[in-house]
Amino acid sequence: MSTDAADRRALAEGFADLALAAGAAIMAVHGKADPTAKADGSPLTEADLRAHAAILAGLARLCPGIPVISEEDAAHRAPGGLRLFILVDPLDGTREFLSGNGEFTVNIALVENGAPVAGVVAAPALGRLWAGAAGQGAWCAGTDRPGRQAIAARQPPEAGLVAVASRSHRDAATDAFLAGLSVAGLRSVGSSLKFCLLAAGEADVYPRFGPTMEWDTAAGQAVLEAAGGRVVTPEGAPLRYGKPGWRNGPFIGWGAGPLPPSSS
In which residues is substrate bound (predicted)? Predict the structure, then answer.
């Protein structure tokens, strides 16, 4: 099975509806969370499980022939050479969800031949949704879906780059990387919202050197790349999917324009 631009657009539209349904399930228990700990020590809440169930049920109707890997059941799935699959993070930024700052998201992405080619990031507490499909561009909308606006990554400003970094996982390697750039401003943001700020032309670079999993990044990368940006390794290679253990290495998200010499 393979997809064309129209297929990817249709799936992004369908993913948006599912992300909104998952967001509603999350908001129904927002502020009522009683977290437990996963095997890796990260928190798990009823909201994670409700969103997971809503998305998987919807995907079974929307695209029953495509394998789905969700954070909440990925331990039962090995990459195994999958060429076409869907990555889901039902609640990205559980720490932000528990803190009440609203910077958590629902992430759904289609991966084809190792590249995320359609994706949706919904931020239910912020009332925003971002989507994109390869060859079809990227857009944002309110979670009540009254309308949408095309978005595009921007060229680097002459005044200097606006960088975004993880609110909960910023490290010394990130600070060292940013020290080598002309940075005019820095925003600390949770979850995959960092990709969306680049995609919307509100920021220019997002370095991440700490550990992430593929479901953390695939949807945001799909939106950013559909908007004209890129996500690459520190050596400049595209960030790919279907890796052993579903684990990412370091990466850098960039807006539009040529990559700096250190990342090309």
Answer: 71, 91-94, 216
